[in-house]
Amino acid sequence: MAPTPLLEGKITVITGGSRGIGLATARTFAAAGATVVLLGRSTDSLQAACESVREAAPAASVSGIGCDVSAPDSVRDAFQAIFRQHKRLHALVANAGVLDDALIGMVTPAQIRQTFDVNTFGVLYCAQAASRLIARSGGGAIINVSSIIGRNGNAGQAVYGGSKAAVIGITQSLAKELAPQAIRVNAIAPGFIDTDMARSIGPAKFQERLASIKMGRIGTPQDVANVALFLASDLSAYVTGQVIGVDGGMLI
To answer: Given 121, 160, 192, 230, which residue is catalytic?
Structure first.
């Protein structure tokens, strides 16, 4: 008898799901039997992502909803739409994020606001909305995507690192608050992952980061998606409040 897919019958939401880590997670969840709802700002990108997920998992149920996670009204409307369509929710992957590096002397107030609006406040808005639905469904998982920079810092990334460090504090606080409702809250801290964001830093910096990885290779979005699958499934039924690094040994 074939094993039951890990997320069969589960309703899952992934923010920033149209590319990179979010898209890899969507494909992985769909292949594991989940119903996948992608949230993102670009309708065209969401449509393309849904088609990509269906190509990888033809039997998958996948849809996209336009949502700006930095805007509380937009998040509210998106989760109201999820409730109308599905009536329940089992897992949220809060993956949407932005990176806008600058040395502290050059950082503008607009950069600070945008980075925290998306990376930090967006996590809070989505957790607030998702936790209500997950509690109604009898429990589940919230998975927040932080960063190795949020744990270890990096020159020129005070704003980004601060926004991602805040995600860790949010995760550990929510884990304590929501455990009585059978909601597990964990974070993933990716290292140097082969995404558009990583490729935007320039060849010299790219090689410098690559050289710091003890495993000798850049991570893939699939490496992160596999950990998200574990955290969304019953395999992690007794895991909450944890920050799991997916970094190939950058911090060893």
So the answer is: 160
